[in-house]
Amino acid sequence: MRGRNFLTWLVAVATWATMVYALWNAQSLIALQGAALAKTLPPEGVARITQATNLREAPLQHEVWRYYRDGRLAWLEKHEAGQKIIVEWETVHGAPCGISYNEPVSVRAIESKQLPQQGMTLHIYRKTSRLGCYLVLRDSEGASVGVWEVN
Amino acid sequence: MGETPRRVYGVWLLWLLALALTIHLTLTRQMDGLVSLWMIEGLAFASGALSVLLLTRPPYGAHFLIWLPVLLFGMWYSLMSFDMPTDYWQTPLKRHALGWLVGGLGMWVWERLRRRAS
Structural domain boundaries of chain A? Predict the structure, then answer.
């Protein structure tokens, strides 16, 4: 009986410890799962990258950028070391990212095999919460070469 | 309902290990995001079935304490799933509910067979 009581409480402690770990990491887990899911779905919007200026590396951690929109054109902008970094795209069809513009946004490259380049295709997937979107970069053959998350 | 067999705790511990491994391997990019989604769906189903086995046996208080953090994680995961590009938030909930149903039915059949045999 005593051994069983010990086992019960051991299971309780193990469960709480695992769930604290799971709760702590849920958001990062879902971002990765969301990016993987997005790549398998038909896009809500399709865009073509018209400009990628001064971008030397993808933002692998969350970074504060600004998001702007002007008609079919949309762009992400950041100032770093006196330089203006711009990634701009033109929506060909479908929905734009859907987040409020002229405001700071959090940007992160969840996957980054290649940096955005002029002429690349961008597939836009809005989050269910409508508080952000996934931008899937595709090369000329349609293969995914990066997924950026914008909130 | 009799005391909880040790193997129920054993399976529960395996479930915890599978969840922790799924999260760890996904975050370290050793598991594909889609495989990770399927794992979470499978684990949601298993947690439903295991919850039935756990909550219907004494000690009820301790078992509720074991079950509570799983419920909290499930709710948090579903809430966070609004970050997904589709209405995915319902999927793990449905799997979990199906697990309850299958677990409950399985237990009912098991008890009937046991009574008939004795």
Answer: 38-150
Does A61 lie at the interface with B, CB-CB under 8 angstroms? no
Number of CB pairs, chain A paired with chain B, less than 8 A apart: 122
* 10-residue stretch averages of pLDDT, chain A, 151 residues long: 79 96 95 93 94 92 93 92 93 86 91 93 92 92 92 89
Which conformational region is residue A86 in: left (phi greater than 0), alpha (psi within -120 to 50 degrees), or beta? beta
Whether omega before B85 lies within 30 degrees of 0, making that bond cis, reads: no
Q: Does A62 touch chain B (CB under 8 A)?
A: no
Q: ipTM value, please give it.
A: 0.90
Q: Annotate chain B with DSSP letters as a single string.
A: --PPPHHHHHHHHHHHHHHHHHHHHHHTTSS-HHHHHHHHHHHHHHHHHHHHHHHTSS-HHHHHHHHHHHHHHHHHHHHHGGGSSSSTTHHHHHHHHHHHHHHHHHHHHHHHHHHHH-
Q: How far is B59 from chain A (nearest CA, A)?
A: 9
> Contact B52/B103 with Cβ under 8 angstroms?
yes
CA distances from B38 to A96, B13, B18 (A): 29, 20, 12
How far away is chain A from the Cα of B27, in angstroms, using its nearest Cα?
6
